[in-house]
Amino acid sequence: MIGTEMYAPNMVKRADHVAAGIVAAAANVLAEQGPAVSMAEIAEAAGVGRATLYRYFPSRDALLAGLTTAALEDLLGRIADADVETASVPTALARLTRGFLTAGSKYAALLQPGVALPDKDEQLQNRLAQPVLDLLNRGVAEGILRADPPVGMLFEMFTGLLEKALHVVLRGESGVEQAAEAVIAVFLDGARVSGSNGR
Fold it and tell me: What highest taxon heads this organism's lineage (predicted)?
């Protein structure tokens, strides 16, 4: 028992490291070669044997689920780093936009046609949406964003711009920074209260 208690944490860390490496390799290979890439090719890219790959991810669906979870957790980390509760509304929106586009381009494989995604964790999805909704509500309360469209509509417009901008980035027509600046310019110039600089 003493030996198990001493080494179990290290074993867990190693398992997490191996799984993370497999997921990262899968994201790269799927983005480069498309959804037809085989599990054997993913294992080779990750530097592990097929038996190791299947030990961590018993099926392709399990691997895609792991990839989806990693992408959502990456987004949650970027939301936390954006410090949206204390930054000004325009600054926080800009940080969120860069974070979403950066994470989205990293996990581009999930957006490819032919990739059948598992059902997303609804609670996790809510954790992604709520900070954006809270920020938009604050923007309206502070007189920075217009109050006449409902906040739910502002949310759909903002996330719609993000989605389209991400596709532009993935097509190689724009970098993340340029696309992020365009999203913020279009969204705020259309949503900002006339005469308000939002600072």
Answer: Bacteria
Query: Burial level of 146, CB count in 10 A (0-12/13-18/19+)?
Result: middle
Q: What is the dihedral of CA 25, 26, 29, 30, to 10 degrees?
A: -160
Domains contained in the chain, CATH given: 1-58 (1.10.10), 60-199 (1.10.357.10)
Q: Which amino acid is residue 102, in one-letter code?
A: T
User: Any residues with CB less than 8 A from the CB of 159 and at least 6 apart, and which?
Assistant: 132
Mean pLDDT, residues 58-80 taken together:
87
> Largest alpha-carbon pair distance within the chain?
69
Give the span between the Cα atoms of 95 and 79, in whole angstroms. Answer: 8
Give me the half-sphere count of Cα atoms (radius 13 Å) on the Cβ side of residue 106: 17
